[in-house]
Amino acid sequence: MKVVVVLSFHTMMRLVHSQHLRHSTEIHVMILEAVLCTFVIPLNAHHARPVKSGDSVQVSLEASELNIPGIYLIHDFVSAQEEEQLIAAVDARPWHSLAKRRVQHYGYEFCYHIRNVNTEQQLGALPSFVTCITEKVPLFKKLDEAADISLDQLTVNEYPRGVGLSPHIDTHSAFEGSIYSLSLLGSCIMEFRASVGDEKDTNFVRKALYLPPRSMLLLSGEGRYAWQHYIPHHKVDMVNNTIIERGPRRVSFTFRKVRKGPCPCDYPQFCDSQR
């Protein structure tokens, strides 16, 4: 069995001068917009080892394939030009460093130590450079009539290659029912898991969705309130039979609506307001 590995041009040049090239059985150099190279190698070759076979899960390319109510994905939500402008805008502003990634907050600051926001400390309106995103958010109304489109909080995350996100459900009392996340520069796999029994059960149903650059994800309803979401800490992602190397940098724009009262959701076992 063979798989396809997508490598950057820089990585390809390093491999050309390394002994790893000896393991390849076929090499196809393709001149694409980003100058990508595709190496076809045996599945059990050294390059595939960062993805643990025992930890794999079938990856969906469309949110509808997950069969999780409330999860939607729109591809090419912004253009390549808008992506470039958005990255330039955040890079012109100060970043705050966490343990493994950098963040920026707009509207309200998310306090990681309490996993909530201080609603009495507003940072101001969302920046004007995200208008190209917020003006398109109503498109999700066609997919989810209950989707919130009035958003007042933005967290920008910068993920270096290999850095992911730990499993969690966004605090119910912190935000309303719709969470939007735009992926820029790099792709990743986002996994979702739900306990088979009660919330303390360690047996999970797991599903995975591939998030390409410039795609916008919506978590709402059951998908927002009852399923944990996370990004595996991988340097390459296995998308079915294709291994895709993560780029040196992925930036996400996550939009939310800050909740000003207790959460009245239908998932009390996961809700901090109803415990």
From TrEMBL:
<feature type="domain" description="Fe2OG dioxygenase">
    <location>
        <begin position="150"/>
        <end position="259"/>
    </location>
</feature>
<keyword id="KW-0560">Oxidoreductase</keyword>
<dbReference type="GO" id="GO:0070988">
    <property type="term" value="P:demethylation"/>
</dbReference>
<dbReference type="InterPro" id="IPR027450">
    <property type="entry name" value="AlkB-like"/>
</dbReference>
<dbReference type="GO" id="GO:0051213">
    <property type="term" value="F:dioxygenase activity"/>
</dbReference>
<protein>
    <submittedName>
        <fullName>Putative oxoglutarate/iron-dependent dioxygenase</fullName>
    </submittedName>
</protein>
<dbReference type="Pfam" id="PF13532">
    <property type="entry name" value="2OG-FeII_Oxy_2"/>
</dbReference>
<comment type="similarity">
    <text>Belongs to the alkB family.</text>
</comment>
<dbReference type="InterPro" id="IPR037151">
    <property type="entry name" value="AlkB-like_sf"/>
</dbReference>
<dbReference type="InterPro" id="IPR032857">
    <property type="entry name" value="ALKBH4"/>
</dbReference>
<keyword id="KW-0223">Dioxygenase</keyword>
<dbReference type="InterPro" id="IPR005123">
    <property type="entry name" value="Oxoglu/Fe-dep_dioxygenase_dom"/>
</dbReference>
